[in-house]
Amino acid sequence: MANANPQQAVKIQRRMNSRRIQECFIEGRHLSLENLREQMSLQDPQNPMMTYLGKQIPPYPTPVEFWVSNVAHVTVKSGFEKILHSEQFRPGAGGFSWWGLKMNKDEIKAAETEKWPFLETFTTSPPFKPETSRYGNYRFTFPLSELMKWYKEQNCAGKEPVLRMHETVTYKQEIMYTVLIHSPEYNEHFREYPLLKESEWVRYQDGKIIWKAQAICETHWYQFVSGEIVK
Predict the structure, then answer these.
(1) Which of 8, 16, 40, 72 would be 102's cystine partner, CB 3.0–4.6 Å?
(2) How far apart are CA 29 and CA 194, in angstroms?
(3) 20-35 average pLDDT score
(4) Which domain of life is it from (predicted)?
(5) Handedness of CA 154, 157, 161, 164 (dihedral sign)
(6) Which residues contact 85 (CB under 8 A, 6 or more apart)?
């Protein structure tokens, strides 16, 4: 796996996003928590994320594999009105149209195993709160398989879209893996980004995103001890 190769150069960069919030990012990689902790301690030890990464966390489910069928585009009222007026999802920040996973309770339940039952108790981080978003109050939700079909027909001349590892992005208490989807026509333009199949933590299969989540709790109020949840 590309992420597991310690010889690959990792450069942590900072920028201000479209919401005027500072974020750190690593291009072309989906770093594990362990690798991110190691690299950040070397390159940016004062980063607020280090407080989160350095916590002594009680036992809880990790990693957990979720198969997610739906994605959502979240926006504010002005963005919502523009989409309705144009009947299009136009590129936003960075020239991309941004979509996030829209997980449901059935998908959380399906990820439970004999080793990790009761996942709903632990799934408290933002991706598991489908009715709330820090990006806006207006949401468009579609099955990813349908969205990929439309994209293939409208943007790829009937050819299969290409999926690549885009970035690992960090905030104070959030780590986000982004996936770049583009037409084969732009293979040369985006060739510096490895294909998604090289990611250890995110895959695409059968019209679903398969996310191998390493940190599913926003705050760790519970721990898992000998098959039981302890608060």
Answers:
(1) 72
(2) 8
(3) 93
(4) Eukaryota
(5) negative
(6) none
